[in-house]
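Most newcomers find our protein records easier to grasp once they have seen one. Nothing more is needed to start thinking about how sequence determines fold. Here is such a record, shown just as it appears in the course material:
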Amino acid sequence: GTREAAFVYAISSAGVAFAVTRACSSGELDKCGCDRTVQGGSPQGFQWSGCSDNIAYGVAFSQSFVDIRERSKGASSNRALMNLHNNEAGRKAILNNMRVECKCHGVSGSCEFKTCWKAMPPFRKVGNVLKEKFDGATEVEQSEIGSTKVLVPKNSQFKPHTDEDLVYLDSSPDFCDHDLKNGVLGTSGRQCNKTSKAIDGCELMC
């Protein structure tokens, strides 16, 4: 359970929630549509209208579809707890970055009144949020609070992680070295730019 695995689980879970929500809004699924709970006026003075993304349905589908593998094995093992946590962190990356989009109405382009709806962020934004969480992921270990098994920071001096953070159990292998046991091909023989500090630079590659 490395930090790379944490990222893969998080972005996969987010991807399912995102795709299902988008399909709901597009009318591609029979069982869901726009979010009808977002209606009426708002404290900001605009009118809720249009098709708000039904993120609640997308998240619920992701929870039932993506999490089932871990829950079927019993969600008490270290790895199951880690995967379930990161699945939820992926969904939170969408939920916590929902935005309000609006359209103006009025004569000659004036904005006499606005209608607005809730929309998901672009998936690129979700990926960027999770990349930041990947960079700051917390190494954890299992502990017990009463009879409940939980994950806590391995280093007790670190602050506890939140539902939005990624967590991992194992240190990552050195991806620069050839290690077929862990499926790592290494970077030997790959071309890189010795003077570049960007993604093609040798320092960034290894």
About this structure: The CA atoms of residues 64 and 71 lie 10 Å apart. The helical segments are 3-25, 55-66, 68-72, 78-95, 123-135, 202-205. The chain has a mean pLDDT of 89. The longest strand covers residues 138-145.
